[in-house]
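ENTRY TYPE: paired fold submission
RECORD: A
CONTENT: sequence, then structure tokens
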Amino acid sequence: MWKTILRRVVLMIPQVLILSIIVFILGAMMPGDALTGLIDPTISADQIEAMRVQLGLNKSWPERYIDWMGGALQGDFGRSWAHRMPVTQIISQRIGPTLWLSLLTVIITYGIALPLGLLSGRFQNSFFDRSVNVYNFVTYSVPTFVLGLLFIWLFGYTLGWFPTRGTVGSGIQPGTLEYIGSRLYHMILPAFTMGVLSTTGIIQYLRTGVVDAKTQDYVRTARSKGVPMSKIYTRHIFRNSMLPIAQSMGYTLTGLISGAVITEQIFTYQGMGQLFISSITGRDFTVMTTLVLLFGAMTLLGTLLSDIIMIFVDPRIRIN
């Protein structure tokens, strides 16, 4: 198994390299550059050209890519033209809030989806099953920004239960319990928004898995032997129905990091998603390229993680 994992990791290197070239070309094709909109109208054309030469913006994209990749291999992804600091420093400041938000989202997602999916399949065609289907239909059709704005209006402005923006309250000393509590308090509403919308696929997979498993031969055999239905469900049906969920768990964990772009923007949450949007609107190519590369690498890592999880949960799978 370890040889397989090592081989998959080695195969990820050319994939990430190709991805970096594509992202860099797309970034170079965007109109404008980092100086667009930041130049004072009183600055002369010679001064603007001198700044472009200093930043290396007058070079061709292959030259800029080689310079950028040479630094990236040494852990230097360049400097942000908008934030005036190294890209790695900006990302290190933003990745923590996004990871904590993603972790809380995963907990909420599986906390809602697992019981609803399993019980919906268990009591097929009941009132509960039909209610879950309606819930699935609504959460599948509602866009993220619509549900986010609805929750802001309902839980933020109308009921006043949660803050509607920001990552932490103002004037709180970092490292204190009050600071940690404020961070958690600000995460609940955006995490709940993403968690609710992420339950749709999991519920549907689980429900379909339970319904299919009820007709399998091993279930009929267990019933013919007089095994109680509660034991058949807990030891056989539910366990086998979880396999598709385990297969997609790697994608879910890594995909939430890049999937928080819209939610973080709506709730003004200072994470990776909001940084990605601001890097695009500000023509901050070094930040944008690094983030897209990071999101792509996380997707490849999610594929590998899903395969590893399946090896442990399904003994029938053996990767040669």
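RECORD: B
CONTENT: sequence, then structure tokens
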Amino acid sequence: MAESVPQSAGRANETPARTASRRWPRRRTRRHDRYTLAPLLLISSNLALFLLFFVWPAVIGLGYSFTSYTGVGSAPFVGLDNYQRLLNDEAFYAATVRTLIFTAAVVPLTYVASLSAAVLLVSPYSRGKPVARVIFFVPWLISPIIAGVIWRWIFGENFGLVNYVIIALGGEAVPWQSNANLSLIIVVIAATWGSTAVNMLMFVAAIKNVPTAYYEAASLDGAGSWAKFRHITLPSIAPTSFIVILLTTLHSMKEYALIQAVNAGGPGSENNLLIQYIFTTGFRRAQIGYASAASFVLMLILMIIAIAQLVINRRKDS
């Protein structure tokens, strides 16, 4: 039988290198745990808020979408009846089409306005940049309700500033509020005005990060201002452009407060977007279950748009 060796004697015979090799995995494990736990602790509060105010209400809304819940009493299960009703609801289709038209108009206008303002603010030939920066940033400082009231005063049919000027010049009052198309145009202008400030700041940061060496090399080759903007600036800020387009699209599809303040989706329900339709159905007609089904259809549309834009952007990058 082999003679047993005391553990203390064995440890005493270990070389320093062997001892260090035994301690190293332990230190690396502690460091690994620290790098793993720190991000988890930092995002835990956001994760808790996300679960509490987004995931949990979404789960409840998904459950209500399969019921005929009216906001009071029980919630009888009706299966897919609400979704089948949506397929035959002309008001839902009209609101969806109006939402797509509104978004298709607001996104390109916002992109052009934001990028133009950013180019003016970073141009070395511009004057009065501090004042212009404050003016461009004002829409972001006021609430959408107040912004909507301002635009309602400007384009009011009976008391608006624009009609006052037109009548003073001998013209006839324009039906800004009673004509559905004109009313939608006013909302598009107001939404573009309100979305320009934040996107402008993103473009300013992106343009300032473009290396000046590119412009200097282009100048030596005889490139003009438009050629530099088209072949240097636009490709360099492509990631920012993608973010601006994506966020503006998602925000436009969910616009509510501004439209409610400008014309409340009028005249009548002509300019009701999906959000107005969902609010009216759920809280004024007390059809919570049906409105929940419409909300999930809107969420699916937003997810499809976001995923499609991400796929297109990745293909362009590749």
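NOTES ON RECORD B: The mean pLDDT is 84. Residues 278 and 294 are 7 Å apart (CA to CA).
STATUS: closed
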